[in-house]
Amino acid sequence: MSTFVDYVNRILNSLRESDFPDARQVGKNVVIDTLTSRRFSFLSKQAQASAVESLRDYVARQERSCRSLDFYLNVGGGFRPKAAAVATAENGLTFGEILLLFQVKAFLHRVQPHVQFGITFTLFISDVCAKSIYGIPFELSGQYVKVLRDIVSHYEIDGLRVVRESEYARDYTGEWNESYVVGVAPKDQARIERYLDHPASQAELLQIQSKYVFYTALAKRLARKTLKGFFLAQRPSAPSELCFRSFPGGDGKMHAGAIVLTRNIAGAVVPRLVPDLRRVSYSMLRGDGWPCAVLYSERSL
């Protein structure tokens, strides 16, 4: 168990430090080279060629205008009842969010010394979308965002912001025009039941999936219309989107399950995204000064 505790403490200590051991990227294309490195992307440079060209154009345009580089990453609806029940008492914060902050701070520390006009990295929480699809009240989303902002402030992560969709977009709850869906894939059913925190009927699945299709598309359009900058994605769905790993070694969306610490084939502790905790055996760790509980499994996942 001590190795899992050591891993958590190392992550938290890195957040406390003013500099990262690997903050050493140099060169004209520092931002592009960093974002497309294996540390921050699970896709090959060839697979991201279109997105890289868009980023190259964006960086050049901002430099010519003497403007800062502004990056945006959607990290889902925020508060998740299942996460609150498993990982912490009330606010829905999990170790996944801590690892996300670890990744963002590492990225900023690599590139900040080499960006002339400054850089910001914004995590935006789709709370209106979560309310529209799953009925998550703004009050719970607000508590989640406050805790996340407090942690960013506590660790003094310069250049990182957290915004709520409700702070820049209208409350479009109720604008749903029923989208036709033929069925619900197993991964979508797992996502829906994670938010509902109970098994869903077929009718409930179809209705919520229809809302998901409609509202996520609407939220994406509003974000790109209102938030000016370059958009990253935890799991790109289009060639124009650039990948950003939300946790070390990750290749999925942080909010698409629970982060569980396990061991890889070499015996090293690594985080894994587990879509359905009912299918794995896990235990829970709590430590002095830790902002949340941490899940771990002695069995390789």
Can you offer a commentary on this structure?
The chain has helices at 2-16, 30-35, 49-64, 81-87, 95-111, 127-134, 138-154, 186-196, 202-226; strands at residues 69-74, 119-125, 160-164, 230-233, 242-243, 258-263, 269-274, 283-285, 294-296. With 301 residues, the protein is α/β, with parallel strands linked by helices. It has a single domain, classed as Rossmann fold. The longest helix has 25 residues, at 202-226. The mean pLDDT is 87.
Structural class: alpha/beta
Number of helices: 9
| General form | globular
Strand content: 5-15%
* Tally of discrete structural domains: 1
Please write the string of helix (H) and strand (E) elements: HHHEHHEHHEHHEEEEEE
Mean pLDDT: 87
- What about the largest sheet? 5 strands, parallel
Given as residue ranges, the uncertain stretches (5+ residues, pLDDT < 50) are none
Indicate the CATH class: Alpha Beta
Q: What is the rounded distance between the termini? A: 16 Å
State the helical fraction: 40-55%
CATH topology: Rossmann fold
Tell me what the CATH architecture is. 3-Layer(aba) Sandwich
In order across it, which strands form the biggest sheet?
3-2-1-4-5
Q: Let me know the number of strands.
A: 9
Rg measurement, Å: 19 Å
Secondary structure layout plus pairing:
Layout: H1 2-16, H2 30-35, H3 49-64, E1 69-74, H4 81-87, H5 95-111, E2 119-125, H6 127-134, H7 138-154, E3 160-164, H8 186-196, H9 202-226, E4 230-233, E5 242-243, E6 258-263, E7 269-274, E8 283-285, E9 294-296
Parallel strand pairs: 1-2, 1-4, 2-3, 4-5, 6-9
Antiparallel strand pairs: 6-7, 8-9
Helix pairs in contact: 1-5, 6-9
